[in-house]
């Protein structure tokens, strides 16, 4: 039922999917039609929804969204996917105040459909109420991505692997034991032989993500003897797909006059895309947006160096009252106290962003090391033994208590980074780029840090 991809149709309005990390890590297996119904339902949830609704899924929308051809079986396939989804259970392991628990629930309820496929144009269905904590009012520890990344995928396993790796995109690496990965995808019974699992799941996902999503991956096999024990996924931004989505819409009728004016004003800036412009114009008037663009251009003309133009412009969008930033040499000559206060506030906000970035970097380092140690317990023991003689090791405390001490943990981290620098390569590069961008934005404001 797959239609040939039409590039002119690829610029549809952006819809975001939000799932709790626990749900992403859940143990379940869908076929492709169950996955399509599930994905379509996810796009119909709004961030501020407090309860599930009955979601009406039109067959024509599914055909259009997933780029399918219409045939006489289309409605039956949609309905059949919904029926199977209602019977499907999902297993979620989560940490609670009482300890780790295994949660089991059905996913969907209440299917209302036509009895005749000739009449069938839509189905009505809702999520099971027990799914609320994993889909509604998500404030932290959740995955969010553009649904366009999964619409073209013909394998439900490719969708699952995309989500599992997308969570770790900033870290740049994710390690699964083979047993763990098969268990998460619920395929131990389907692909008991590694060769089949590799061909049908991993290599298929690698091809699909390369062709259709904003990330791609390579992988390495960690063997114990002749058997594969773990899969090491190296995760990268898929620049080909990302750049394609930055291009302006080819159909001029879909781009209103205000968006065209804004786009033309900054179309040469790195990082510009219509989604960002649309978000600005939903919040602010065209004059408000264009005024801030003009401010940035004036600052450049006055000699202010702004490397990350889009990042700096985004900050100005959040600033209701504009002030003129003089060239760095003349910053001290500003006489307007209110302008100086606004400038100082902006600098403080950027400094907080920098501090938050550094904290996140440290936490991501810890996450990499923790996962590395969990999959390599022998290596962990070796590291601990090798630094027991250090002065910052407290012999009156046990190993786990020492590991909670910042100085000891820092010593462990430094040793792991020294011995296994490739584990942190992507994380370090990403951090450096973001840190540089924030510092450049700060220095454009006259920051001396």
UniProtKB/TrEMBL annotation:
- Per its record, how is this protein called by name? Replication initiation protein
- Organism domain of life: Bacteria
An example of a Pfam family matching this protein is Rep3_N
Ranges where the Initiator Rep protein WH1 domain occurs: 17-166
Can you tell me which family this protein belongs to? Belongs to the initiator RepB protein family.
Originating organism: Arcicella rigui
Spell out the InterPro entries in the cross-references. Answer: Initiator_Rep_WH1, WH-like_DNA-bd_sf, WH_DNA-bd_sf
The record's SUPFAM superfamilies line, in alphabetical order, gives: Winged helix' DNA-binding domain
